[in-house]
Amino acid sequence: MAQLACTLKAMAIFFVVAMYFATVTAQDLEMEPAPAPTMDKGAAYSLGMSASYQIEQKEGKMAEKSYEEEHPNKAVGWAARDQSGVLSPFKFSRRSTGEKDVRFKVLFCGICHTDLHMAKNDWGMSTYPLVPGHEIVGEVTEVGSKVEKIKVGDKVGVGCMVGSCRSCDSCNNHLENYCPKMILTYASKYHDGTTTYGGYSDIMVVDEHFLVHIPDNLPLDAAAPLLCAGITVYSPLRFFNLDKPGMHVGVVGLGGLGHVAVKFAKAMGVKVTVISTSPKKKQEALEHLGADSFLVSRDQDEMQAAMGTMDGVIDTVSAVHPILPLISLLKTQGKLVLVGRKIVGGSSIGGMKETQEMIDFASKNNITADIEVIPMDYVSTAMERLVKTDVRYRFVIDIGNTMKI
């Protein structure tokens, strides 16, 4: 029974992780997204994903603490209270700074499409109140007694995870993102049983291991989306060896992920072709982002002319769409990151070592996301615009200057 329970829990965690990182929308192919898979709410609660936690009392009864009383550090943020997804001010608390913890003031937080899905419970596993945000940057204000690599005043970033078991094969190989006990930045359970809250808030307290340094030359607002969108496309370029100068890589979709993929690939010396259903994105891809060529995926003549020319294709589109036309673009042994010796692969963000490498690479090559900075009280409007794909290419909230309760 214990083995079965562990298996079911691992499957459920895999479901959470898989859906958590589906960060690109139908905007990239201009298609209607398929209905999202759902998880039974009872199953979600059985995994410990409730929005508040229970503390065992001496008499054996359970008493619920308020969100402001869970921890000693008062915090404010913006939270969704129900499936409407509307965000409003929320008072809660953060834990004390432990010996390996870093406390920092949040300055900017990107808006990922995952935030919208979770706020609206599109995947059937959200619990409320829910504070979104996993593209977080800020300035360190306090460090624990055993913190070694970070000091007060440093600029740091937090991405999609804030914890893992630190002992499994994945963790030992710097692949914390595949740990079955990975703790997500929000809507997850921390080691002490309390709920994790994301970066739409004024402060964060995070284990040093799950922070990355943000170099001084990267603007903090435009660096924030790199913590999710950036590592999500950087990792497969490296892992599948699609980072060699002179190689030819296709990037499917020109949204929050796709535009950063073009920048990283070009900085690696790769020839880049953007593939999209929308001809109107051609000028943007070629003139602004520096892509070498552009394919309209609905144009059969263009697609046929490009058959067998690419070493790899990075597909950043989460909407349901055919992949056979993309496979036809590959050379023998070409790789589609999603027969004739063609590899279909998958990728999910990246481990902490690789995330720091990605940030350092971005710093060296002056790569940031294209963003629109917004005040905190504009976030609900931004969510509405996100549904309409009315953003180029990432919203970033100015937490440091506009967080007010």
UniProtKB/TrEMBL annotation:
Role description: Oxidizes mannitol to mannose. Provides the initial step by which translocated mannitol is committed to central metabolism and, by regulating mannitol pool size, is important in regulating salt tolerance at the cellular level.
GO molecular function: mannitol dehydrogenase activity; zinc ion binding
Enzyme Commission (EC) number: 1.1.1.255
Segments forming domain Enoyl reductase (ER): 85-397
Protein name, as recorded: mannitol dehydrogenase
Organism encoding this protein: Populus tomentosa (Chinese white poplar)
Keywords carried by this UniProt record: Metal-binding, NAD, Oxidoreductase, Signal, Zinc
Biological processes annotated in GO: lignin biosynthetic process
Protein family membership: Belongs to the zinc-containing alcohol dehydrogenase family.
PROSITE patterns membership: ADH_ZINC
Enzyme class: oxidoreductase
Cofactor(s) the protein needs: Zn(2+)
Pfam families xrefs: ADH_N, ADH_zinc_N
Reaction equations catalysed: D-mannitol + NAD(+) = D-mannose + NADH + H(+)
Signal peptide range: 1-26
Source taxon at top rank: Eukaryota
